[in-house]
């Protein structure tokens, strides 16, 4: 078998790259270990930056997003028992975030891929990457039925997430990994309940962080800071509601209403960046190359930004034979990656309770929260990063 671009992983990075390439007449094959049902049902991100929404719309993927996505013009920081609103649109010349679940983006992308008639293989096993330093790298794998295949490619895109095989395929002496592990995790739940708030609430409290997001008028998405070793069995419903009520308590009369919890999970909080994001004819994109803690809602958006750069670079090669953009892919992508790493680290540091830190540190956090919600300059800094800097700025 032969293709132009072999893509490993059918997450947002892999599927969107395949779509962007197809629009430019570049052929690809997407290989995914899981089933279509699994990838379309995995609950993950929810917040899309303005640039992500614009790109999905411009490339014909926005029909359901425009109908079902919820544009938010502001976000709330809650501390000291009160809400403090950051007017995102007002501070950024009209840019917003849109709440639209990642698995809905995946469903739209899978549909577009099948409509295009190009290859997307589920249930593949034992993928290995061969001859990356030659002009004809290869992907070897077993298909769903167990048959062995080899695809020769011009280029390979490693879009297989944090636990994939692509990143370790770069020899360890040629790759540097920057890692930071947080001393806490997030406990995420899905709840059947009416919407509790018009805009997302990020809450800081001495007992820990809490976040109220949404999925639909009837389904809400909530998170709370927990210990990294926690399991779902340690968090019966009563403990979850007690913690949420405590962390969201206030003197403004607002109270979260409870509902039926139908999904629970523990989400690790870590930061990782690999440099460079390319080796020979392999290019990494999305979580395969970098992880951010979820506080800034940047992971999915960074995956989108990476493949936008990669698709442009591949198009320059196929249209004009130029490899300049491909050679600079890592350097270009890493500028936005490190901006998002910094923003995610900053939001995480400001909003979580560090139990081993001194009261001095806690006072610093309060001072930062007060500053960011009272100074237009500081609020603008948060807003422009949260809605996503324009692609041509970073
Ligand atoms: P993935 O989505 O991980 O996709 C990789 C795919 O590759 C998977 O389908 C996997 O099965 C497949 N794969 C793995 N190994 C192989 C292999 N060997 N061969 C073939 N296929 C393989 N980001 C945001 O922007 N906003 C948010 O609000 C947000 N909230 C989040 C909340 C939670 C609870 C979590 C967990 C994450 C959140 N993120 C958020 C991060 C976001 O979900 C990820 O950054 C995003 O999924 C990255 O996309 P990706 O395509 O790079 O990787
Ligand atoms: C959601 C996830 C995030 O990480 C975040 O910062 C905001 C919202 C969500 O799943 O809705």
Which properties best describe this structure?
12 helices, binds 3,4-dihydroxybenzoic acid, 35% helix, alpha+beta, 8-stranded mixed sheet, 7-stranded mixed sheet, 394 residues, binds flavin-adenine dinucleotide, D-Amino Acid Oxidase, Chain A, domain 2
Number of strands: 21
Briefly note the structural class of the backbone.
Answer: alpha+beta
Give the total of domains. Answer: 2
How would a crystallographer describe the biggest sheet? Answer: 8 strands, mixed
CATH superfamily of the largest domain: FAD/NAD(P)-binding domain
Write down the Rg.
21 Å
Average residue pLDDT: 97
Bound molecules: flavin-adenine dinucleotide, 3,4-dihydroxybenzoic acid
What form results from the Cα inertia axes? globular
Q: What is the annotated CATH architecture of the largest domain?
A: 3-Layer(bba) Sandwich
Low-confidence stretches at least 5 residues in length (pLDDT < 50)?
none
Structure characterization notes:
By secondary structure, the protein is an alpha+beta fold. 43% of the residues are buried. It is built from 12 helices and 21 strands. The radius of gyration is 21 Å and the shape is globular. It has 2 domains: 5-46 and 101-175 and 276-354, FAD/NAD(P)-binding domain (3-Layer(bba) Sandwich), CATH 3.50.50; 179-269, 2-Layer Sandwich (D-Amino Acid Oxidase, Chain A, domain 2), CATH 3.30.9.10. Bound molecules: flavin-adenine dinucleotide (FAD) and 3,4-dihydroxybenzoic acid. Flavin-adenine dinucleotide (FAD) is lined by residues 8-14, 31-34, 39, 44-47, 102, 127, 159-161, 163-165, 188, 267, 286-288, 294, 297-301, 303. Residues 8-14, 31-34, 39, 44-47, 102, 127, 159-161, 163-165, 188, 267, 286-288, 294, 297-301, 303 line the site of flavin-adenine dinucleotide.
């Amino acid at each position: 078998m032969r293709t132009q671009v072999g893509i490993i992983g059918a997450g947002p990075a892999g599927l969107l790259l395949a779509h962007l390439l197809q629009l430019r007449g570049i052929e690809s094959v997407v290989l995914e270990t899981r089933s279509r049902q699994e990838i379309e049902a995995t609950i993950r991100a929810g917040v899309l930056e303005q640039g992500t929404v614009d790109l999905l719309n411009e490339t014909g993927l926005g029909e359901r997003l425009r109908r079902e996505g919820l544009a938010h013009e502001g976000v709330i920081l809650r501390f000291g028992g009160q809400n403090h609103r950051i007017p995102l649109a007002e501070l950024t010349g009209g840019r917003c975030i849109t709440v639209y679940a990642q698995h809905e983006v995946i469903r739209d992308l899978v549909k577009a891929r099948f409509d295009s008639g190009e290859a997307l293989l589920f249930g593949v096993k034992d993928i290995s990457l061969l001859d990356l330093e030659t002009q004809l790298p290869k992907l070897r794998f077993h298909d769903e039925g167990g048959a062995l295949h080899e695809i020769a490619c011009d280029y390979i895109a490693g879009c297989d997430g944090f636990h994939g095989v692509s990143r370790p395929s770069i020899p360890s002496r040629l790759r540097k990994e920057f890692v930071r592990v947080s001393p806490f995790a997030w406990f995420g739940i899905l709840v059947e309940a009416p919407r509790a708030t018009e805009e997302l609430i990020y809450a800081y409290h001495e007992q820990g962080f809490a976040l109220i997001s949404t999925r639909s008028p009837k389904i809400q998405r909530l998170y709370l800071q927990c210990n990294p070793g926690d399991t779902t069995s340690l968090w019966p419903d009563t403990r979850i509601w007690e913690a949420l009520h405590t962390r969201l308590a206030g003197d403004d009369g607002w109270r979260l209403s409870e509902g039926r919890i139908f999904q629970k999970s523990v989400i690790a909080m870590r930061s990782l960046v690999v440099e460079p994001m390319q080796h020979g004819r392999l290019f990494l994109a999305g979580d395969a190359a970098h992880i951010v803690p979820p506080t800034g809602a940047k992971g999915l958006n960074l995956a989108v930004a990476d493949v936008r750069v990669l698709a442009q670079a591949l198009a320059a090669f196929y249209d004009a034979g130029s490899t300049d953009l491909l050679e600079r892919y890592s350097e270009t992508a890493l500028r936005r990656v490190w901006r998002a790493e910094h923003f995610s680290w900053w939001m995480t540091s400001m909003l979580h309770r560090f139990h081993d830190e001194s009261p001095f540190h806690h006072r610093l956090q309060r001072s930062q929260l007060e500053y960011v919600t009272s100074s237009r300059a500081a609020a603008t800094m948060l807003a422009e990063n949260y809605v996503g800097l324009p692609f041509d700025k970073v």
